[in-house]
Design a protein that fits this description.
This protein is mostly helical and about 450 residues long. The chain is built from 20 helices and two strands.
Length: about 450
């Protein structure tokens, strides 16, 4: 017990305040809200992406012969392949709303800055050049920069619009006109700074902001963050926080751009017929999320073997939500949070299943269809998602992972169940003695 007391004190003293500060930070809030706001784009187009990529030869031949596949590919290209455009608009909008500014002007300026900094002169083979936007910077390569610019530009706009240099319009001017004209001076300043940055980067070896950012920052971050091993240890950290009652939402928000970037890169590669850059991460990502943080899907199965009335009575309340990736009722109802009995399985069960999944995937190397990663709602039972993404082999790994979770939890659940049975028996004896004495 001393270990848990000291750990609880340490987390309460250092990590919990840090978690609160992160979750209350306006920049983090804007990025998280922006990523959530862009979810309808990814889910909205996922059905089309799934349908045009079903692995059925006759269906594929029909789509190609009728031109449906080409139309579907175009739909995918202007949604998933241009996700940075939607993200920068959503993130800058979220930050502006947090600061109480116009939710229209700020995102427009941020999007314009993003396009200004993007290389738009494309050299042709005959020596001529054309002005166009290339998808090279509108897909996964532009996501991180879009998030940073979305916050940075919105922050600059918020400060400038509240300074004395703004154009103050009389009250008689309609609010829409006033907001637009008042933002003119801040827009001039922000666009001029973007122009200066663009010119300065022309004199570097990278030639533009995008290539410099990808080389210096995004590539190392993605290389480390998209490693399946990194994600496994990240899951352990989240589970440790969750065990001590600190919701890991704050740090998962920081990790979200890496996951989104990896999923988009996989989907772009899949649609173009190229090899997936992060297939192992997708396998580990799904397996480590079975039942939510803490791997409680295995614990919910333990309830089927409960002998105490306490756990028998809560089976339906806990098992059914857990199947659909909702584990808060179990985490706080069992409880597993701050319950020493469940420390080991809650913190390390997903660590074990993650390594098993990674090992099995490295052996079998089955094909992954990443279009289902965002195609199904988050409440879809994970075994369904696994089967859709990787067929029977992936389904088998998911079932094996749930069984491992069960085995990790069951010895500790038996202790908890026996303890509950003992308390119920003692309570029953006390009530019986009281009944006899009254009689």
């Amino acid at each position: 017990m001393k270990f848990f007391d000291s750990m609880e004190n340490m987390l309460g003293k250092y990590l919990e305040p840090l978690s609160v500060r992160i979750s209350d930070n306006n920049v983090i809030k804007a990025i998280v809200r922006g990523c959530i706001a862009a979810v309808p784009i990814t889910i909205g187009v996922s059905l089309i992406t799934i349908l045009i990529n079903l692995p059925i030869p006759s269906w594929a031949e029909f789509l190609n012969s009728t031109g449906i596949f080409a139309a579907g590919t175009e739909v995918t290209n202007v949604t998933l392949s241009m996700l940075p455009i939607y993200l920068i608009s959503a993130v800058s909008y979220s930050y502006c709303k947090i600061k109480g500014e116009s939710g229209i002007v700020g995102p427009m300026i941020a999007l314009a800055v993003f396009l200004i900094l993007m290389p738009s002169t494309i050299s042709m083979q005959d020596g001529s050049s054309i002005v166009a936007l290339t998808s090279d910077y509108l897909g996964s390569k532009g996501i991180f920069l879009a998030l940073i610019l979305g916050v940075t530009v919105a922050m600059a706009y918020s400060k400038l619009i509240n300074s004395r240099i703004r154009i103050k319009m009389p009250d008689s001017v309609p609010p829409m006109v006033s907001d637009s004209l008042s933002a003119s001076i801040p827009a001039i300043i922000i666009f001029f700074l973007a122009f200066v940055v663009k010119v300065l980067f022309n004199f570097t070896e990278y030639n533009n902001v995008f290539d410099a950012f990808n080389t210096i920052i995004q590539t190392p971050v993605m290389t480390f963050g998209t490693s399946p091993i990194s994600f496994i240890f990240f899951t352990v950290l989240c589970n440790l926080l969750w065990f001590f009652g600190v919701h890991p939402a704050a740090i998962t928000g920081l990790y979200a751009p890496i996951i989104v970037g990896a999923i988009v890169a996989n989907m772009q590669a899949f649609v173009s017929g190229s090899a997936l850059p992060y297939p192992a991460l997708m396998v580990v990502y799904l397996i480590c999320n079975l039942g939510g943080f803490g791997g409680t899907l295995g614990l919910s199965l333990c309830l089927l073997l409960a002998k105490s009335e306490k756990f028998k009575s809560v089976r339906k309340l806990f098992i059914i939500p857990n199947i659909f990736n909702i584990n808060e009722p179990m985490v706080f109802g069992m409880p597993t949070v701050m319950n020493p009995i469940y420390f080991f399985p809650m913190v390390f069960s997903q660590f074990i299943t993650g390594w098993v999944a990674l090992g099995l995937y490295s052996i079998f190397q089955f094909p992954i269809n990443p279009t289902y990663q965002l195609g199904f709602p988050w409440v879809t039972p994970p075994v369904i998602t696994a089967f859709a993404e990787g067929g029977v082999l992936f389904l088998g790994i998911a079932i094996l992972a749930i069984l491992i979770q069960f085995l990790c939890y069951y010895p500790f659940f038996r202790l908890d169940d026996k303890k509950a049975c003992k308390m119920e028996k003692e309570t029953s004896l006390v009530e019986s003695d009281e009944f006899v004495s009254v009689t």
